[in-house]
Amino acid sequence: MKIHRTPRAPRAIGAALLLAATLAGGARAANAPSLAGATLEKTVLIARHGVRSPTRPPKELKAQTGRDWPAWPVPPGQLTPHGRAALAAMADALGARYRQLDLLPTAGCPAPGTIAIWADSADDRTRQSGAIMAATLAPRCGLAAHALPAGQADLFFNALGTGAATLDQARVTAALAHAIAQDRDHRPKPVQDALARLQALVAPDGCAQTHDLCLTEKLSLSWQHGAPHLKGGPVQAATIAENMMLAYAQGMGPQQVAWGAPDDATLLATILPAHLYAATLTRRLPAIAIPRASVLSRAIIDLLADRPVTLPDHSAIGPDARLVLFAGHDTTLDMLAATFGLDWAFADQPDPTAPDTTLAFERWRLKDGSRVVRAVILHQGLEQLRAARKPDLSGTGATTLPIGTCAGATLCPLGHLRPATIF
């Protein structure tokens, strides 16, 4: 399998490789054109929904782990009231950012057709997140988010789920077999530490029992209904770690987040590499991510080039749109990261695709008239998310990313932006 992209190290393998990648990106950026005197003309945003409850009820989680899990104020997988407030704070910050950059008007309402918001129809949480962002980006302007009918598959968010793209089973099997072998022989140290910490916390004697929870067990692969499924300790640990992060982001105390373990915020930084690792093995695997993102990645490029894009409901986003927002999932961010060769981490947030995290593709017109695309990741720190607090998206909440499929440039000539390909 060959992939046209800049090699990207999995986030879970540790800070040393991240530092090396950052320095390399900085070296490339040193020779890039400057944004001094440039004008921001358009942005395409892809946002994860707000804080949700775990997708399985506490009773089922207890059956899987042997531990009692906290009750949530909403049914499984739903956006919480706290999640709504935190997302509104993030949307407020996005509006402030793009007013400051003169993309949105500083007074009055945006002109009709200049903002478009499309949400994934798969879940209530994405549709509700789109509505919250519409109401907050341009308050009292009657802006609305749109989506397909509830539960209907949307090819923009998963081209595989609608048949718009297909997996090459042989290629995916080979890639996952290689990943499983690497995991067996060279499981990264941060992941080993995460699994050991979770094992000690959740089921200290789990690996000594034949049918108990063992988070260090090896990975295995099966295919179900034409889709690959990884099983094993890291996959189980990923779900446990994410559920604990969601409880912390919801504002729960140590007893509910980590069964009384102290320093639960520090604990999250130790265990979340397990979640990132599982995402790298599957959701960011190019053989899966690139076809899954094929429709959305083409739409992003077309929108930045002022070409009209037809949405799944047969409506269209025209060339006058200045801000386009897609309300999706962490899987949406992961698949685009793999497709465009992007990678990021945050000093104040251990989950790079935490709720409300937003990926921006910004089109700038330089002083010489040429146009470039800049990829920026926008986020709330963990404590900001927990407090439903507005981040500073003109400062630490915004990070410019090297674009792997544009030779690592931080300012990519408009015509050079393209998705990775597999052949």
TrEMBL record:
<feature type="region of interest" description="Disordered">
    <location>
        <begin position="52"/>
        <end position="71"/>
    </location>
</feature>
<feature type="signal peptide">
    <location>
        <begin position="1"/>
        <end position="29"/>
    </location>
</feature>
<keyword id="KW-0732">Signal</keyword>
<dbReference type="InterPro" id="IPR000560">
    <property type="entry name" value="His_Pase_clade-2"/>
</dbReference>
<dbReference type="InterPro" id="IPR033379">
    <property type="entry name" value="Acid_Pase_AS"/>
</dbReference>
<dbReference type="InterPro" id="IPR029033">
    <property type="entry name" value="His_PPase_superfam"/>
</dbReference>
<dbReference type="Pfam" id="PF00328">
    <property type="entry name" value="His_Phos_2"/>
</dbReference>
<protein>
    <submittedName>
        <fullName>Histidine-type phosphatase</fullName>
    </submittedName>
</protein>
